[in-house]
Amino acid sequence: MTTSFKSAYLVRGAIAAAVLAATGTAFAAEEETGSSYDNYVYFGGFYLSADKDRTNTKKSGDSFGYQAGVGQRLTDNLWVEGQFFGDTIETGTSNGTDYYQTGLGVDLQYAFGQRSEFTPYLLAGIGGVYNDVPGRDKITPYVNVGAGFTKSLFGLDALRLRGELRAVYDDYSEGSTSTDGKIDYRAGLGLEMAIGNREPEVVIKEVPVEKIVIKEVPVERVVIQEVAPEPVSVDDDGDGVINSSDKCPNTPAGAKVDGNGCVVEQTLVMRDITFEFDSARLTTNAQRLMENAVAFLRSDSSARITVAGHTDSRGSDSYNLKLSRDRANEVRDYLVGYGIEANRLQAVGYGETRPVASNDNESGRELNRRVEFRIQK
């Protein structure tokens, strides 16, 4: 077979060759600032207004108790929490007999939004409580329902204030002839500390993307040329693994890979991702270079990325923290807008808290203004 034809088939019709852009709309996911985590521990106290039947008086007994718990995310909005609590109910009786309660239980919580931002939630749960009353000790089941909220403290995603109100019904009765249970009301306040892997919750917004329309144009002729086989030593993405053995093409420049050419866990500084001055808007050049990151994530479906934003020390701490978060979110949104699954991407900002060079000169500040990709497998 010859390597080329001087002439081939003459094409008298028209073929599709020109591309015109038309405006369209696509969906992208956006995470609220300060993402929640998969797990948390909780410590707090509560004020308890006891059922008046416990006190043998006309009014409820006042009590203060403690509680601790461990929570686990089940879905984007649903959480399960194991609890331990205890309290002493002042009965106000002349013989000085009080109620001592300790209990274990499990709650389901439905949270309306991000758990680190101000987030209301509803709860319902069951458990068992030990009522330590002289002469009438008993372990009884209980159910409770309630509502509460969480809110991050001091700008820390992992530290949250928590407040809640509960109505607790237990099956404790005063004697063998009594079948009435007791309803107590608890108002609690405490701290949640997030632990484990960070998983962003997302809301949906619309962002403009482009639709492609094909237009026919006339072409004189088509020349068919035989293409020589690709040399076995070609390494298009420059990761040190030749194309024929590379199972993960489009590796980002400078990334470490395994023997199959797939990126291993590491942190990459993306110097080419830049923003307009004092803004979270990507520069035109950065948008073009982001296509490399999109191609990498499409070729390696096992890779997950945490986008970390950093600033130099100019400006206030709070302003730099917000700017770094906004920039990290902008990069994440850009990737999601081009089809990368939102659950593979996270965004976090550190402001000026993690410099890699001195902020006393411009060259050092330039190094500190950066975006990092933390690649996880």
From TrEMBL:
Keyword Transmembrane applies: yes
Highest taxon above the source species: Bacteria
Family matches, as SUPFAM superfamilies: OmpA-like, OMPA-like, TSP type-3 repeat
Subcellular location: Cell outer membrane
Keywords for the protein's UniProt record, in alphabetical order: Cell outer membrane, Ion transport, Membrane, Porin, Signal, Transmembrane, Transmembrane beta strand, Transport
Record InterPro entries: Bact_OuterMem_StrucFunc, Beta-barrel_OMP, OMP/PagP_B-barrel, OMP_bac, OmpA-like, OmpA-like_sf, TSP_type-3_rpt
Membrane topology: Multi-pass membrane protein
Signal peptide (UniProt feature, chain positions): 1-28
Residue stretches making up the OmpA-like domain: 262-377
PANTHER family tied to this protein: LIPOPROTEIN YIAD-RELATED (PTHR30329:SF21), STATOR ELEMENT OF FLAGELLAR MOTOR COMPLEX (PTHR30329)
Name under which the protein is recorded: OmpA family protein
Species of origin: Paraperlucidibaca wandonensis
